[in-house]
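Q: Sequence in, structure out?
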Amino acid sequence: MNELAISENTRVTLNFALTLEDGSTVDNNFDRAPVTFAVGDGSLLPGFERALFGLKAGDEAEFSIAPEHGFGQPNEHNIQRVKREQFEPDVELEVGMMFSFADASGGELPGVVTELDDQEVTVDFNHPLAGRTLGFRVAIHDVEAAELH
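A: Exactly. Output:
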C-alpha cells in the first residue's frame, strides 16, 4: 500500500461525512464512490484539508472543525434589508426561502429570507453553515503525488 501522507502537492481519494453538532448529516458519500481532489484545488476549505495532513491510504479519522476553520462566523454585514418592491410582485415570500441575487461581479449570491413585512425583506447572505462546529469523518483510499502545473 502507498505510504505517501497527505500534504501539499498530493491528490487524495476519500469518502467523507459532514455532520452538525446534533449528529444530523449535512453531506455523506460513504454510500457512493469516493471522490478525488488535489490539495489546494479549492474542492475543500483549507481547514478541512489541514485536518487531513499526515493521513495515509487506509486511514480513517474523525475531526471536529471549528467555525474559524470551516465556514467562518456569521457576519452582521451580510444581513441586508431589501425593499419588498425589488421582488417580483407575484412571488409569495416566506421566512426560510432562498433566493439567488446577482453580486457586483455578476456572479450569484444565495440569500435566505429571515424576516419580512409589507415594506422590507431581511435577507441573510451568510453561508448556512457559518458559526457551526462541524464533524468531519473520512476514509482515505489513495494518496498520490499531484502533478504541478
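The helical segments are 46-52.
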